[in-house]
């Protein structure tokens, strides 16, 4: 009888343990992704320290579910690329820009390749150099592939590169490169998303108000779009916005990414519909927001 009771108790505790642990695990999300644009169904996250590439699928809400995992190789000298030729893989948020087929490639790149937009805005602001960072296959005669094996690219087997292809929408899908995936509770991510979303909406409303002081209050004194610094942006926007009788701005397809390797830095992208008394434009815009003294400020902004 003692054995039966002990066995039953053990079973109950086991079931209880699973029931308590499962929801907690289910609530964990990659901390880098605060929001995906409505058009994006998938996201790739490359973990440098373990050499793993994770494919995530977005559900009807904002939850991400891991749907696949692949072994990868990274730069011979590791990660955190800064200089051309340093044989390191960059850390950051990148976009797949094109698709190169077997017929377009040397055997070195395997049977398919997907170039990424390195250097991105953050890389350029920091003076990082180099180019040609791809997601690609391996030479057909490759027998072994250690973790650190490439000139900086993210390398998969030829079999896996074609499996990954179904998750890639050229021009849109993001590949987030991180030292190690950090997981956060979905409620915590929702709070962060709400905070930065409010800041972006305040910026939009301040722009439409035509009050230059209100508009400029959203920008950091460290602002630089690689063409204009804060003072130049101040003068330029005061002149341009001052010539309008009205300004209307609508935003859609918002994407938000807590920038890997940086504290309190968020990359935002959205589709902007701008209309004023003398100009109309539609297109994508990207911004970098940095938290300064408890307030979110724009340090970079560029359309296209």
Automatic annotation (TrEMBL):
| Signal peptide region | 1-26
Family annotation (InterPro entries): Cds6_C, LD_TPept_cat_dom, NTF2-like_dom_sf, Transpep_catalytic_dom
What CDD domains does its record include?
Answer: YkuD_like
Keyword Oxidoreductase carried by entry: no
Task: Cite the L,D-TPase catalytic domain residue spans from the record.
Answer: 42-177
The entry's keywords? Cell shape, Cell wall biogenesis/degradation, Peptidoglycan synthesis, Signal, Transferase
Active site feature: 136, 153
Q: In which pathway does it act?
A: Cell wall biogenesis; peptidoglycan biosynthesis
What Gene Ontology terms for biological process does this UniProt record contain? cell wall organization; peptidoglycan biosynthetic process; regulation of cell shape
GO terms for molecular function, please?
Answer: carboxypeptidase activity; transferase activity
Provide the family line: Belongs to the YkuD family.
Name of this chain's protein: Murein L,D-transpeptidase YafK
> What is the species of this protein?
Pseudoteredinibacter isoporae
